[in-house]
Amino acid sequence: MRFLIKFSYDGTNYSGYQSQPGLVTIQECLENALTKINNGKKTTITSTGRTDKGVHANCQYGHCDIDVEITEYKLKRAMNSNLPDDIHVIETKIVDDNFHARYNVKSKEYKYYINLGEYNPIERNYIFQYNYKLNIDKMTEAIKYLIGEHDYRAFVTDNKEKENCIRTITKANIEELDNNKICITFEGNGFLRYQVRNMVGILIRVGEEKIKPIKVKEILESKDRSKNGKTAPAVGLYLNKVEYKE
């Protein structure tokens, strides 16, 4: 049977989501638990996408095939019994054998949290401790240029000269929270590696008033990564929501 698994995790102590030789990853932990449940048969999980080292997920999905007879409820309980405390299965659901956790995705939502106030050591792994004021009005003006269908090559760290970097961002906004914190939200049909963190990085430069908001549009249209600024740290970034096609 094919199961769709909804899970969340704290990425602090992992070398990212994807399995890597010699490193502890989210995928490795999930697959170790599934293999144990599946009578020792090596069981892989295919997720909606990969998150980098230090990135968290409130809502991540993956599909896997299980040979043993097991209910949705018992699979959830069994997985949580075999997972570390910083990874948690929220829900399991039996799906059609043709269902694909990555290719059936309709949209993803990422959120990035920044602390503009006093440094908080307790939050250092969960909210980017920027600890200075930013011009939120100018950042709000700049973020609008990132909405729509574009080639986001200028915001991808890896060499993407030959890869299709066209994606659609349907929502992008900045919300001011309590205690001098802000939340930057991006929703779209897909995101490339480091794309969200690079977009946040350029917005921070706008907030610092080092560049004007219109510069974001110019950088986007240039399709040149070298014109962009620093990549925002992984801490503060969350895969927050995933929606599937009906």
How would you summarize this macromolecular structure in one to three sentences?
This protein is of the alpha+beta class. The chain has helices at residues 26-37, 72-81, 136-143, 195-207, 214-222, and strands at residues 2-9, 46-47, 56-65, 87-95, 105-115, 128-129, 148-151, 166-177, 181-188, 237-244.
Radius of gyration equals 19 Å
Main sheet specs: 10 strands, mixed
The outline comes out as globular
Can you count the beta strands? 10
Low-confidence stretches: none
Helix share bin:
10-25%
Order of helix and strand elements from N to C terminus: EHEEHEEEHEEEHHE
Secondary structure class reads alpha+beta
- Our measurement of the CA-to-CA distance between the termini, rounded to an integer number of angstroms, reads 20 Å
- Total DSSP helices: 5
**What's the rounded overall pLDDT mean?**
95
Fraction of residues in β-strands: 25-35%
> Oligomerization state of this entry?
single chain
